[in-house]
């Protein structure tokens, strides 16, 4: 019997690192819920392994553990902290699965910890496909023909009864991991095997395919007294068959009849009641467009990605209310914190349209399979709000920051090949929206496009209306009335200019002359029925404005837009910290961002939030509005340093329009990005950099490469996350790479540098214009050549000589002061043959800022923000130089989502591939590194078999760690050349053939049949073995076993195995920074 004593201390499980299917929405939900617990006077204890989140800041929860999310760690935290309750619904699938494990291991009962919010029984019923099916039958809800299987044989039997295609959904997984749609027997076999491997309970649901049906979602809330409300209903523009995280989603639904709306609403409320959930819940339905037949597809008994979208779409703080309900509060006694007049039991109403578009990583992974299905592939998403669907859709497209800048983009292939266009419409993929627009421009009817795509004709007719407006803008005179109509439909000045054959400045001037200016409307949860106190606004073209400019001192923080590889949650962390720091210094903070998943777009993070695209026009209009400008340049200062490359790319156009930019001047950014100027700058300071040059043609590239000697590092300038960066070993490969990966017509040159394979070191520093504070120096485990975002970073640099540390501090100080940096600066160095070279300088926040802030305790963003506002480091109680080394070791581990992206090369290089990061922290390197591996899912099992296939240049360095593996009892399998080397050194090894299909067992067999538990495979510089290596790395990733592609990482992992697993600490973050007595 569970205790009913009042709750005074609650354990919250975070969601861990960001992966595809589980992104920043859980940082937003966790942060909001932790604040809500504090309001209730309840002490909170957080466990999460992701340092890049706001929720792991020490002032959000009362006690913060940055530790791996494992059963053992949570057991130790429970023993130490003795919480009364556990809130498992804020950590995504990770948190939910761990809560079930804790309950089943008897840990919750043993230590008297109550599960809050969602009962264990409800989690099991919603997550276990068999129990869920039975629940639906019990309450009279329609059930799809389906079966639960635990083996491939059972799956094949069901496929004989119910014809293909079939949907495959593994139990207890996130983002559709391991699932898919099987249209052939071969696909059935492949997806079922992957699904069984992905499910922690080895269970997969096979169900009849409802391809082409509408997908509708309801976000519902219930309290302990059985009050239930609907917060939001959302409609997927894509029909069934596409994961909701990969679908364009519209709120509220646009194509349902009132009868259908009420029918599904009643079913959603019936389900949350039957499950007994206290808190939030997401219910997904399939609805037959030809009848009123529907089925329940899925229930998420937790805060989900859809909850974040519903919360931002309505302004209703779902996570906050869910946390309060979990500790016993009722909906009718909670005040709606947005209106401050209605209770939380009041259902939100929308008088606008919201459109969410996923952000896919295909600009990074050009060779990836771009078809989208039931397994999610998007890394993030954008949201836009407007008074019409057309306006919201066009704003959302502008927010994506991809090569497809607006709906006018077309693939040249579509003009030559109509069947290619038809395929892009018929097959769900990331470019389908643009293909539909292209087809409509070519005279295809909306009905034809709907028939091919399965998308409701309501949407295709709206797209046809946009095409008709494009035609008018191209053919008619641009009158004020036509301009007004186009702006109301979401056309940007730049798009109107391209269609009307004008410049964007001419269109803007005509708009101003005609008095056509955006107004800003409030997101108030109640369709303006009540006066609201919310500071949350969106721009539209109407008459009445609801956002009076904020009075007094203020500054604008430009956020970082959608989460993507190379620009993740770290920059949202920086933006939120900046808003808080502005408030503390007496300035009102104004946030502009377009990402619904993040803390930065929460209604109470800043004094005012504008949910707008981060393009030049939208940002400038907000600045103008807040300045109350009548033709003058805006005078509200802007912070661009914390929004990644997105915000930095705005520095040039905004500076040209006279906008005051806080922090490092535009000049500093330009010197750092312009190769020739940067070279001269470093030469004047006498600081070395690898030889190289900037080129604008293939001939020049070959000439530079041959002058400095191969291997060379090739990359475009003005990009983030090493996009299209490559180490090139030959003239032929250089020519091929430049033809396929880079365009010389962007106006920005391509950089070619000598590739120095040495020790890479990274520094983040804060400069106030006079002094430079360096919180810490980080050393990368991988040698230079692996992108810093994909490297293991270690604080403090353990293998640096004191003179190297002194030299790095001296160089960093010189560079920051000479650049005129104000705020943050990130510098990457390589130590090669005893010399220290500068690889890169970024006068802005980097992705290591949250990690370093948490490891050192230095409030880096606060110091940088105040420096930008004119307060020196000394005035803030700090001084220049290297911050005292802390009595700990912290390791930042990269986290990848390769299994979700078929066709993507796994091995690491200078182009960034990781989606997130985890942190391991302890008193010494071995346990800290081991914990980082555990948290990142890269730890080797304590015993088992390992497949090793090494490049020739790596073999001599590997004998030592291979001996350790053998001594620890691992069985080593190796390909021919590696096996011969291992045997020569007297280490036991079993050989497998390298050529796939050339003998048995080959290296693919031992991975796919489960013989080996991990793969260590380092690719050589030659491209000849790429295919075999690619297949073995992909096979490992798809089997869900660790795949290590860097010799340095492999060595560090094996050395750690000897000492760390036997003992590591589990302590609150701040405790690690306290000096300990000798003998600890």
Short description:
With 1080 residues, the protein is an alpha/beta fold.
Question: Could you name the key traits of this structure?
Answer:
38 helices, globular, eight-stranded mixed β-sheet, 1080 residues, alpha/beta
Q: How is the topology of this model organized?
A:
Blueprint: E1 9-13, H1 25-39, E2 43-48, E3 63-66, H2 71-81, E4 85-87, H3 92-104, H4 107-110, E5 114-115, H5 120-127, H6 129-138, E6 146-149, H7 152-161, E7 166-170, E8 180-182, H8 185-198, E9 204-208, E10 214-222, E11 228-236, E12 249-251, H9 258-275, E13 279-287, E14 294-300, H10 305-314, H11 318-326, E15 353-359, E16 380-386, H12 389-399, H13 412-416, H14 418-426, H15 432-441, H16 446-453, H17 457-475, H18 480-488, H19 493-500, H20 504-513, E17 519-522, E18 536-540, E19 554-558, H21 569-584, E20 588-593, E21 608-611, H22 616-627, E22 638-639, H23 644-648, H24 651-656, E23 661-662, H25 666-673, H26 675-685, E24 692-695, H27 698-708, E25 712-716, E26 726-728, H28 731-741, E27 750-754, E28 759-767, E29 772-783, E30 793-795, H29 802-819, E31 823-832, E32 835-842, H30 849-856, H31 860-868, E33 881-882, E34 889-895, E35 916-922, H32 925-936, E36 945-949, H33 959-967, E37 971-974, H34 976-984, E38 990-991, H35 1003-1008, E39 1014-1017, H36 1026-1039, E40 1043-1044, H37 1047-1059, H38 1069-1072
Parallel strand pairs: 1-2, 1-4, 2-3, 4-5, 18-21, 19-20, 19-22, 20-21, 22-23, 29-33, 36-37, 36-39, 37-38, 39-40
Antiparallel strand pairs: 6-9, 7-8, 7-9, 10-11, 10-13, 11-12, 12-15, 13-14, 15-16, 17-18, 24-27, 25-26, 25-27, 28-29, 28-31, 29-30, 30-34, 31-32, 34-35
Helix pairs in contact: 1-11, 5-6, 7-8, 14-15, 15-17, 16-17, 17-19, 19-20, 21-31, 25-26, 27-28, 32-37, 33-37
């Amino acid at each position: 019997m569970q205790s009913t004593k009042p709750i005074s201390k609650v354990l919250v499980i975070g969601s861990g690192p960001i992966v595809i299917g589980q992104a920043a929405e859980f940082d937003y939900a966790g942060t909001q819920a932790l604040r809500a617990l504090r309001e209730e006077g309840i002490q909170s204890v957080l466990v999460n392994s992701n340092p890049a989140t706001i929720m792991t800041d020490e002032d959000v929860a009362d006690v913060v553990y940055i530790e791996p999310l494992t059963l053992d760690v949570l057991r130790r935290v429970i023993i130490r902290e003795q919480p009364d309750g556990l809130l498992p619904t804020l950590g995504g699938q990770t948190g939910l699965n761990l809560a079930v494990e804790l309950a089943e291991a008897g840990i919750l009962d043993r230590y008297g910890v109550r599960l809050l919010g969602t009962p264990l029984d409800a989690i099991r019923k919603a997550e276990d496909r068999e129990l869920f099916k039975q629940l639906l039958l019990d309450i009279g809800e329609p059930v799809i023909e389906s079966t639960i299987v635990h083996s491939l044989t059972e799956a094949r039997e069901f496929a004989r009864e119910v014809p293909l295609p079939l949907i495959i959904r593994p139990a207890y997984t996130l983002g559709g991991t391991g699932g898919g749609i099987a249209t052939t027997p071969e696909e059935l076999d492949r997806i079922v095997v992957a699904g069984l491997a992905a499910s922690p309970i080895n269970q997969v649901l096979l169900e009849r395919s409802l391809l082409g049906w509408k997908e509708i979602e309801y976000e519902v809330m219930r309290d302990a007294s059985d009050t239930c409300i609907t917060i939001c209903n959302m409609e997927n523009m894509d029909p069934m068959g596409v994961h909701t995280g990969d679908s364009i989603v519209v709120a509220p639904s646009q194509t349902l009849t009132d009868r259908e709306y009420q029918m599904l609403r009643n079913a959603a409320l019936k389900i949350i009641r039957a499950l007994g959930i206290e808190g939030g819940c997401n219910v997904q339905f399939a609805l037959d467009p030809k009848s009123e037949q529907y089925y329940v597809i899925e229930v998420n008994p937790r805060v989900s990605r859809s909850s974040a979208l519903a919360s931002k779409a309505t302004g209703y703080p779902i996570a906050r209310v869910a946390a309060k309900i979990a500790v016993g509060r009722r909906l009718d006694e909670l005040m709606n914190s947005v209106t401050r007049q209605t209770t939380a039991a009041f259902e939100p109403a929308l008088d606008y349209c919201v459109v969410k578009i996923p952000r896919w990583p295909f600009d990074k992974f050009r060779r990836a399979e771009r078809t989208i299905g039931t397994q999610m592939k998007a890394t993030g998403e954008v949201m836009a709000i407007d008074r019409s669907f057309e306006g919201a859709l066009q704003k959302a497209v502008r927010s994506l920051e991809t090569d497809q800048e607006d709906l006018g983009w077309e693939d040249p292939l579509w003009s030559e090949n109509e069947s290619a266009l038809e395929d892009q419409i018929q097959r769900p993929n990331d470019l389908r929206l643009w293909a539909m627009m292209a087809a409509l421009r070519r005279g295809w009817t909306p009905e034809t496009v709907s028939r091919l795509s399965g998308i409701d004709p309501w949407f295709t007719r709206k797209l046809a209306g946009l095409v008709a407006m494009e035609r008018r803008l191209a053919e008619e005179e641009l009158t004020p009335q036509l301009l007004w109509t186009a702006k109301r439909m979401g056309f940007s000045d730049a798009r109107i200019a391209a269609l009307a054959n004008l410049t964007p400045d001419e269109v803007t001037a005509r708009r101003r002359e005609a008095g056509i200016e955006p107004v800003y409307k409030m997101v108030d949860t109640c369709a303006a029925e009540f006066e609201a106190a919310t500071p949350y606004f969106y721009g539209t073209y109407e008459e009445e404005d609801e956002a009076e400019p904020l009075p007094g001192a203020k500054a604008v923080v430009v956020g970082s837009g959608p989460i993507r590889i190379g620009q993740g949650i770290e920059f949202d962390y920086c933006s939120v910290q900046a808003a808080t720091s502005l408030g503390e210094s007496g300035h009102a903070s104004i946030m502009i961002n377009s990402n619904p998943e993040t803390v930065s777009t929460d209604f109470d993070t800043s004094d005012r939030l504008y949910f707008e695209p981060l393009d030049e026009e939208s940002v400038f209009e907000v600045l103008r509005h807040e300045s109350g400008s009548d033709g003058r340049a805006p005078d509200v200062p802007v912070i661009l340093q914390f929004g990644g490359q997105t915000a930095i790319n705005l520095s040039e156009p905004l500076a040209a329009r006279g906008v005051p930019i806080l922090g490092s001047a535009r000049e500093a950014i330009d010197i750092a990005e312009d190769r020739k100027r940067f070279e001269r700058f470093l030469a004047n300071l006498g600081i070395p950099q690898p030889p190289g040059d900037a080129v604008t043609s293939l001939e020049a590239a070959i000439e530079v490469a041959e002058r400095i000697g191969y291997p060379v590092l090739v990359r475009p300038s003005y990009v983030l996350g090493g996009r299209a960066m490559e180490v090139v070993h030959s003239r032929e490969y250089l020519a091929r790479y430049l033809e396929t990966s880079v365009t010389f017509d962007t106006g920005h040159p391509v950089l070619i540098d000598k590739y120095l394979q040495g020790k890479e070191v990274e520094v983040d520093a804060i400069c106030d214009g006079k002094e430079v504070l360096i919180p810490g120096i980080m050393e990368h485990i991988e040698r230079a050549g692996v992108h810093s975002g994909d490297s293991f970073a270690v604080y403090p640099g353990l293998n640096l000589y004191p003179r190297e540390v002194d030299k790095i501090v001296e160089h960093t100080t010189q560079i920051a002061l000479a650049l005129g940096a104000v705020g943050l600066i990130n510098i990457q160095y390589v130590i090669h043959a005893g010399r220290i070279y500068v690889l890169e300088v970024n006068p802005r926040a980097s992705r290591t800022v949250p990690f370093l802030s948490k490891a050192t305790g230095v409030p880096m963003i606060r110091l940088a923000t105040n420096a930008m506002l004119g307060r020196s480091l000394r005035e803030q109680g700090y001084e220049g130089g290297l911050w005292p080394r802390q009595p700990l070791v912290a390791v930042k581990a990269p986290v990848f989502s390769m299994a979700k992206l078929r066709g993507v090369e796994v091995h690491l290089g200078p182009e960034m591939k990781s989606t997130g990061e985890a942190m391991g922290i302890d008193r010494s390197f071995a346990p800290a590194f081991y914990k980082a591996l555990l948290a990142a899912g890269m730890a080797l099992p304590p015993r088992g078999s390992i497949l090793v296939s090494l490049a020739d240049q790596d073999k001599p360095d590997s004998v030592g760690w291979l001996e350790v593996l053998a001594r620890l009892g691992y069985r080593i399998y190796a390909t021919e050349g590696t096996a011969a080397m291992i045997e020569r050194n007297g280490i036991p090894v079993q050989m497998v053939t390298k050529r796939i299909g050339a003998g048995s067992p080959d290296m693919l067999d031992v991975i796919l049949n489960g013989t080996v538990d991990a793969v260590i495979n380092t690719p050589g510089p030659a491209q000849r073995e790429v295919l075999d290596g690619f297949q073995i790395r992909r096979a490992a990733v798809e089997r869900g076993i660790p795949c290590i592609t860097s010799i340095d990482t492999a060595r560090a992992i094996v050395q750690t195995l000897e000492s760390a697993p036997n003992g590591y600490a589990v302590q609150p973050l701040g405790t690690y920074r306290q000096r300990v007595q000798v003998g600890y």
